[in-house]
Amino acid sequence: MATNWGSLLQDKQQLEELARQAVDRALAEGVLLRTSQEPTSSEVVSYAPFTLFPSLVPSALLEQAYAVQMDFNLLVDAVSQNAAFLEQTLSSTIKQDDFTARLFDIHKQVLKEGIAQVLRVSPWAGTVSLQFSPQTVFLGLNRSDYMFQRSADGSPALKQIEINTISASFGGLASRTPAVHRHVLSVLSKTKEAGKILSNNPSKGLALGIAKAWELYGSPNALVLLIAQEKERNIFDQRAIENELLARNIHVIRRTFEDISEKGSLDQDRRLFVDGQEIAVVYFRDGYMPRQYSLQNWEARLLLERSHAAKCPDIATQLAGTKKVQQELSRPGMLEMLLPGQPEAVARLRATFAGLYSLDVGEEGDQAIAEALAAPSRFVLKPQREGGGNNLYGEEMVQALKQLKDSEERASYILMEKIEPEPFENCLLRPGSPARVVQCISELGIFGVYVRQEKTLVMNKHVGHLLRTKAIEHADGGVAAGVAVLDNPYPV
Ligand code: ADP
Ligand code: MG
After folding, report:
1. Based on CB atoms within 10 Å of each CB, which residue in 248, 271, 301, 389 is the most buried?
2. Strands 252-255 and 264-266
3. Residue 429 and residue 436: Cα distance in Å, rounded?
4. CA-CA distance, 450 to 138, in Å (whole number)?
5. CB within 8 A of 225, min separation 6: which ones?
């Protein structure tokens, strides 16, 4: 893809001046991260890394990504409600992957408890009036990520990398970066171009989803509980959502899993209380990686899951976001089974799927491994992990596949077609590093929000986007992993 910033990227002196202006504007707008030296304090902060210029994205692909987001919301919600599908899909994985297995154990435990109550109460209650009411309000805040695969005829195609169903981040900071890129273009007197930068406000949309779930919970004094990490560099991203909620008179408390295990409790109706305050919605910004769980934290997670509060996500929805589920969804017939009577939605979803291959022990897995070993540059090996930096590429992938080949452990991985976007030039700005013009590729994310009460979907929408751009020398990793930087799509 050509860029129309070409000549601007050659003028080093001008770049440096623009970079100074852009950094100051980013700081003024609140595009902030805590520093890696002081991740628990906001005394010293810096700007989140970003591109000096917005990157070109074909409007048709942006539109397609927005259009398919409500379908992805429906799909995730359908998977989360289909216990049989989750059980079958994850059965081989949980034998090999301890983290997924632990999540799955909680899922089973919560399901069993829910069913047990219905059976116990209904025979003599006449109607199903439960003594303990299970969770009835469900809130999904997700982000579906894509890259633009070059096709043979040169036109790029939208291909999903993954969907994040827990702790999908950067909606807050992405709401503040358009002003920075408009500033840069305005300094260059490119007023028309500045006007093309899309407005974007995911934090508001995410907050509206939380507010809806809070409202449906139906207790005006109840709070939103944000499960936070002790060391959180990305706190300003989270604060953007908290601020939106406070503006609606919905109060948020931030607590760690450790706090919950000490101060959290359920009453006899399984209402959740923390420090004596009732919780309507639990919003997880922690709990998506193995190292975030001590034994104590697993217990806290179980307590939260058993509660009547709306969890974002509940454990089933977190499982719906695993790479193994993504791979199984690409099998012929799966989307049709999960979204019956919705052929248009199925077609829109399937159009975004890249090649995904099971590595379960058996002929199909053997063949996938043989193909990847024959053409390593065309594949990515993925374990059931989130947060960046876990996937294997190239020679590392080859070594891993050779080792895994004859072991049951291979079922904890999936294989994916490697997406190869056309690189372009942009200038990356990072605290402590000189402005760098490099060959880049981008990843587009669309934020989705849905709310369900019992069986009725009361909200289903897209609420904004995130563009992240990284130098091509990095195969893996997002902004938090220190690889990608924040960007804005410049629609062409
Ligand atoms: P995580 O849950 O760790 O974010 P992802 O599946 O999003 O895992 O992969 C992390 C990063 O690796 C992505 O942001 C992207 O840069 C790169 N990546 C993942 N899958 C592919 C793929 N199929 N083709 C090319 N790059 C990929
Ligand atoms: Mg990712």
Report:
1. 301
2. unpaired
3. 7
4. 8
5. 252, 253, 255, 272, 274, 279, 281, 282, 283, 309
The answer to whether residues 89 and 97 touch, using CB atoms and an 8 Å cutoff, is no
Give the pair of three-digit tokens for residue 236: 């300003």
- Calculate how far, in angstroms, residue 44's C-alpha sits from the geometric centre of ligand 1: 31
- Specify whether the CB–CB gap between 48 and 26 falls below 8 A: yes
Taking the CA of 380 as reference, the closest ligand is 1
Q: Give the count of beta carbons closer than 10 Å to the beta carbon of residue 3.
A: 18
Q: Which of 355, 440, 308 is nearest to 5 (CA)?
A: 440
Residue nearest atom 2 of ligand 1, based on CA coordinates: 386
Count the Cβ atoms, other than its own, within 10 Å of residue 267: 12
Helix (H, G, I), strand (E, B) or coil at 293: coil
Report pLDDT digits (tens) over 75-120. 999 999 999 999 999 999 999 999 999 999 999 999 999 866 655 5
Instruction: Pull the structure tokens for residue 86.
Output: 């989750």
Q: Vertex 103, ends 455 and 318: CA angle to 5°? A: 45
Q: CB burial class (10 A; 0-12, 13-18, 19+) of residue 426? A: buried
As annotated, the active-site residues are 143, 162, 164, 169, 323, 382, 386-387, 468
Q: Is the pLDDT of residue 60 over 60?
A: yes
